[in-house]
């Protein structure tokens, strides 16, 4: 949920995602992941990579050199990821092989390489622990350092080197920097904020544009001339009934009160998901990276499978499993005239302040000529996930700030949303569930060695001061409780604004709903499920596909109870629409 709520977690780290703070700054999003101490993000990436290489080599009983070549061979595109990987291995391989032959600890190796440091007055940060890791730590690092210097022919491994300066990684950092810069589609000829391309904020995020040369024609539009000759609102319904001579849009949709759905959210709503089999030496394979471009160009988010805007199919089963359910799917099932009317305006790391300054403006709705919307405002954790272990409470959003931020967003929405819209303010999550359900489990990064619990994983990121949410990803239960306390105070502001300003706005009513995840967990537990089964294994922070699907069900049920009729009536023509127009046009 948070550091860029959850954006920046371990794997992100691995790929150098954390190193793209410039993009997030430009977009007005303050990232809560700082550069950190003791090498910070660079150090975390190094430890994860070295641990993966070592475990791969042990698992396959092969040399470190062969293991590195194996890992590169799993990556797609010889001219892109595979090439970057080989450049990286060319630079680091010879040194790393010599180093690991002497000392197998990832932590000491990364110190010897100069990527991890022990800053003045600090203790070294320890990732995957081994017995007596810290005994003779400095002495052994010093011996390792001598090996590095002896074999570092190009003088790459200066002390304190940033991972993004390394050959191969440099290119990946640049790539990511560009992708994370935008909240509107990169490919959009008519600039109506709807695209024909799936990724880069395209149709995985918002309905596919059915006419990319005309900005008036887009998902959610009230159809022009009842779409008698062509589709102007992209729902696949157009033409004229030859029997009645009435346009199909009129015959099948008029009076059915069509509407769309949008979510203004963070990485939970964007559905951040790092494939577990990228990190686990026993599972990693070429299949795990088959969709790498798609995943990276979607910011490691899965809006097309999310609780708000999931589309109902899974073409990526190599890296994501579980049921798909969403508010959009239910809204479409309710009334097929709503086909393609979805917008996922969620950004990793978003919080109430960044929503106001750069994110909410990317919502595309014409107040006069588009249909109403159900808007879900769900910033469920980043407001309490800022700062690092020494100062997190000083960096949390205050109740007063939360109130001011949400009021600004609502004022803005009143200038954008068509009449008859509805806004739901969703409360913050109680992130204590993370520690409570995961702390003793083994993280995928240490799976083959069968060490590295989530508790250690959280502490490691805290030590480096690069955690996405030190308040909850923390082994100190007082800190976790205090973080929840603030989350409750911020939710109370949302609740109060919704109660007092429920009918204040001209274009929508506003309602509050408690965060659905706790209810989802209850439902899951009642069916005999374990809570950790709803959580993302790699980042130990977000809800996974099962959690997303359950969340959709709960949001839907709660919303209908709060506001009967909020999703409109069932369209009696649904079956005819299906017969006449089939799937109404593909999403991608
Ligand atoms: C690993 O490989 C070496 C030689 O390459 C062999 O001697 C050894 O038996 C192998 N170990 C296992 C567990 O397969
Ligand atoms: C994606 O999934 C849908 C529905 O399961 C299927 O019809 C389609 O063929 C899949 N596309 C690809 C490229 O796998
Ligand atoms: C709003 O909804 C009501 C019925 O729920 C409908 O009668 C009215 O025409 C709608 N107004 C607009 C502007 O769509
Ligand atoms: C836990 O955090 C609280 C609040 O910051 C602090 O007072 C306490 O000393 C910490 N406990 C431990 C065991 O570190
Ligand atoms: C934190 O809150 C839980 C639940 O309310 C409670 O059981 C626990 O004792 C609290 N821990 C601390 C250190 O206050
Ligand atoms: C309702 O919204 C208006 C406009 O943003 C704001 O001035 C007012 O304080 C709000 N009322 C409450 C009780 O929050
Ligand atoms: Ca367009
Ligand atoms: Ca268009
Ligand atoms: Ca149409």
From TrEMBL:
Region (Disordered), start-end ranges: 206-233
InterPro entries in UniProt: AOAH (IPR039676), AOAH_Saposin_N (IPR048593), GDSL (IPR001087), Saposin (IPR008373), Saposin-like (IPR011001), SaposinB_dom (IPR008139), SGNH_hydro_sf (IPR036514)
GO biological process terms held by the UniProt record: lipopolysaccharide catabolic process; sphingolipid metabolic process
Record domain Saposin B-type: where: 39-120
Bias (Basic and acidic residues): 206-215
Signal peptide from the UniProt entry: 1-24
Single GO MF annotation: calcium ion binding
Pfam families: Lipase_GDSL, Saposin
Keyword list, A-Z: Disulfide bond, Glycoprotein, Signal
GO CC terms of this entry: lysosome; membrane
Protein name in the entry: Saposin B-type domain-containing protein
Taxonomic lineage: Eukaryota, Metazoa, Spiralia, Lophotrochozoa, Mollusca
């Amino acid at each position: 949920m948070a550091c860029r709520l959850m954006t920046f977690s371990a794997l992100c780290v691995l790929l150098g995602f954390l190193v793209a703070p410039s993009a997030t700054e430009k977009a007005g999003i303050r990232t809560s992941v700082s550069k950190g101490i003791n090498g910070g993000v660079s150090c975390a990436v190094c430890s994860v990579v070295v641990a993966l290489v070592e475990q791969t080599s042990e698992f396959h009983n092969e040399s470190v050199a062969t293991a590195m070549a194996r890992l590169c061979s799993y990556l797609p595109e010889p001219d892109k990821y595979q090439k970057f990987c080989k450049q990286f291995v060319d630079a680091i391989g010879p040194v790393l092989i010599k180093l690991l032959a002497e000392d197998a600890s990832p932590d000491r190796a990364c110190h010897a390489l100069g990527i991890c440091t022990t800053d003045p007055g600090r203790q070294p940060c320890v990732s995957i622990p081994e017995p007596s890791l810290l005994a003779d730590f400095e002495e052994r690092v010093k011996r390792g350092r001598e090996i590095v210097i002896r074999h570092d022919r190009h003088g790459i491994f200066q002390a304190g080197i940033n991972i993004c300066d390394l050959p191969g990684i440099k290119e990946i950092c640049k790539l990511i920097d560009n992708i994370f810069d935008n909240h509107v589609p990169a490919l959009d000829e008519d600039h109506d904020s709807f695209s024909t391309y799936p990724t880069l904020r395209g149709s995985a995020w918002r309905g596919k544009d059915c006419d990319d040369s005309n900005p008036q024609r887009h998902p959610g539009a009230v159809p022009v001339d009842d779409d008698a000759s062509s589709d102007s609102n992209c729902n696949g319904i157009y033409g004229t009934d030859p029997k009645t001579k009435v346009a199909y849009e009129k015959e099948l949709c008029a009076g059915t009160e069509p509407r769309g759905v949008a979510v203004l959210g963070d990485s939970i709503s964007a559905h951040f998901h790092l494939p577990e089999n990228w990190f686990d030496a026993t599972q990693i394979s070429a299949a795990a990276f088959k969709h790498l471009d798609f995943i990276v160009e979607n910011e490691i988010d899965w809006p097309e499978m999310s609780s708000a805007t999931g589309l109902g199919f899974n073409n990526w089963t190599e890296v994501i499993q579980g049921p798909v359910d969403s508010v959009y799917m239910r809204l479409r099932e309710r009334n097929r005239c709503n086909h393609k009317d979805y917008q996922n305006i969620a950004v990793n790391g978003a919080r109430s302040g960044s929503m106001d300054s750069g994110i909410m403006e990317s919502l595309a709705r014409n107040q006069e000529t588009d249909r109403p919307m159900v808007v879900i405002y769900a910033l469920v954790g980043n407001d309490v996930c800022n700062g690092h272990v020494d100062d997190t409470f000083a960096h949390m959003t205050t109740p007063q700030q939360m109130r001011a931020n949400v009021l600004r967003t609502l004022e803005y929405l009143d200038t954008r949303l068509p009449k008859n819209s509805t806004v739901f303010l969703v409360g913050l999550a109680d992130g204590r569930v993370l520690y409570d359900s995961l702390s003793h489990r083994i993280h995928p990064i240490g799976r083959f060695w069968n060490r590295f619990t989530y508790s250690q994983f959280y502490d490691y990121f805290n030590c480096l001061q690069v955690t996405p949410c030190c308040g909850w990803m923390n082994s100190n239960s007082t800190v976790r409780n205090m973080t929840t306390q603030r989350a409750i105070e911020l939710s109370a502001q949302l609740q109060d604004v919704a109660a007092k300003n429920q009918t204040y706005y001209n274009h929508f009513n506003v309602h509050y709903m408690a965060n659905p995840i706790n209810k989802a967990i209850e439902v899951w537990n009642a069916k005999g499920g374990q809570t950790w089964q709803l959580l993302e294994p790699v980042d130990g922070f977000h809800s996974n596909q099962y959690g997303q699907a359950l969340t959709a069900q709960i949001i839907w049920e709660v919303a209908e109870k709060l506001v009967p009729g909020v999703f409109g009536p069932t369209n009696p023509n649904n079956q005819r629409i299906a017969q006449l127009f089939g799937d109404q046009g593909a999403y991608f």
